[in-house]
Amino acid sequence: MMEHEIATVVVIDEDASQRVMIAHALRAYYRVLHYADLEMTLGMLRHRPSLLIVDEGLRTHGRRELVRTLKSEPAFRGAPVVVCRAPKTRTHEVIHRHDIPADGALDKPVRRNALFSTVSHIINRTAEAKWEALPDQPRQTLRESLSLFSTFTDVLEGGEALDYNAVTATCAPLVAAVGQSQHRYILEGLRDYDNQVYVHSMRVATLLTMFGHGIGLTDEPLVTLSAAGLVHDIGKLSVPLDIRNKDSALTADEERMLRGHVQLTIDYLGRRSSVPRGVVMIAGQHHERIDGSGYPKGLSGRDLNDLARMAAIVDVFAALTETRPFRAAFTAEAALAAMADEMKAGFDQKLVRLFREIVLDPANVRATQGASG
Q: Whole-model pTM above 0.90?
């Protein structure tokens, strides 16, 4: 099963203070490596970066053709390049100074908001471009889910109700893709995308749909699982980004705020009476555990809805197999082993075993792992 990884950003700058500042600002959201010059970068780098951030004054082999040199290096394999430029340098000067244009530019001194916006935009633009090569159903799923998800923050803040018809319409190609064994393309398309809540929600939606399909669910119950996966964490969009992506232990207040996303989600879904009970149930119970150790209500045993039991398993599996600022991604086998061992008391183990059979089915393993290239 394909794990989701955070993007790797490489910063190359002779100015140690600026280099460290950029690395420090980005490290909660990306894997960041930083070097003083190109030679050091090439000597230390082991994997292709998702993005390069370089100072425009960096001398490359005694020449000023900075972007051309970076784009032509086999180690970078055409990774997007963002140039940090002096305040008086205009964009067209940065672009036309070299035969190959930079993908973006940042004015010095680099500001955090501009840094995050530029990096995220370029990484996502690159990821979305790859979607064009996918089969129809997976491509449609990714395009439509992203378009719908981009509206959630505004409607949350504006007090609007969820358009559940739009959610089910978005989930239709997802259900079709799973039925056609094309879910691997969706997971592959999400691998390099830079929006943790969106990526996690779509992975949960895809894996839940796989789970439901694997145990024989069809039609409305399958759509319910798919839709619930897509919207189960909407409330997290109201939690500050620095708390969602914190790379150290949360304070008690931060933990309380993060856990509050469950009630925020329930409140949001409750604005529209057409949202099925099963969707609301999954959103409200996916952090509950059968031994009563979960939240927000500490439900246990028979108090837990069967669909919510499935969602709890998928949510944790998805989270464990995603890279987070504070840890690397688990493999599918390691995540499932943890859920059947040290986390055993919290989950319905019959369902864990069923999910394991589906996820580790040789066809699924080959499809998802082999698709990444």
A: no
